[in-house]
Amino acid sequence: MSLRWTVSARRGVRSFLASPLRRQTYLNVLYLSLAVPLGFASVLLLAVGVPLGAALAFVLVGIPLLALIVAAALGFAGVERRLAAALLGVEFERDSTGLDGDTRREQAVSLVADRGTWAALVYLPGKALLGLASFAVITTTVTTGVALLLVPFYYDQPGLYVGVVTDRPIELHPALYVGWNRLLVGFEAVFRLDAWRVTTLGEALVVAAVGAFVLLSGLQLLNWLARLSGWYTRVMLGGTYDVLAAARGALGVGR
């Protein structure tokens, strides 16, 4: 058990340190970066289109609008499938481009009754949340890590302050107390930090080491988010009707 844990820990450390050297890491970052605008656009489409279509359904204008919203949602799902396959290497079990029924009415009913259609509508808001989480990680850990990592190159520039400035002093009160013969013997210290500035190369290298750790942590977290997003996409969109493939087939593109 101890040997297995040691091997697993070594693999984890190796994966952690090698994350900036893997091509897949940057493909994951690209995929998660694209999730932000696509997620925002799809959620805006559903948030505005579905209530509007439902409100106008009684005058028959809303029914074509709702059909258009469903088609657009399936189009977004098709884009997500292609991005997941191209950037994350996700493999889908089947590519649904056909509908049951001989007439357009029967095919429309089949599309509405298909579980994959509703899975796509549920998928888009969930993917938007993953996109927001990815955006938060990119704008905090990755950008902060890069900024700290580059401190040795600009810390000594004239007129530039590199360090920590606080509105209020930061105070730490480490304490140690031991009971002895009905007495309480203890030690307490107070550390206070008002401001700290990087003034030497050694301090800058320490900051850069912290930045490297923050950057590696951010990349590893993004890799985990990309794997989670790929799994979510495969589960939710594995059997979704592919509007884009059907449109290409109808237009004869790729034949």
List keywords for this structure.
255 residues, mainly alpha, two-stranded antiparallel ribbon, 8 helices
Can you describe this structure?
The chain is built from eight helices and four strands; from the N terminus they run ααααααββββαα. The protein has 255 residues and is mostly helical. It has one domain (2-152, 222-251). The strands form two sheets. The chain has a two-stranded antiparallel sheet. It has a two-stranded antiparallel ribbon with strand order 2-3. β2 (175-180) and β3 form a beta hairpin. The longest helix has 37 residues, at 201-237. The chain starts with a helix and ends with a helix.
**Runs with pLDDT <50, length 5+?**
none
CA-atom Rg in angstroms? 27 Å
Tally the helices: what do you get?
Answer: 8
Average pLDDT taken over every residue: 77
Give the overall shape, derived from the CA principal axes: elongated
How much helical structure, as a percent, in the residues?
A: 55-70%
Number of strands: 4
Query: Main sheet, how many strands, which sense, barrel?
Result: 2 strands, antiparallel
Strand content: 5-15%
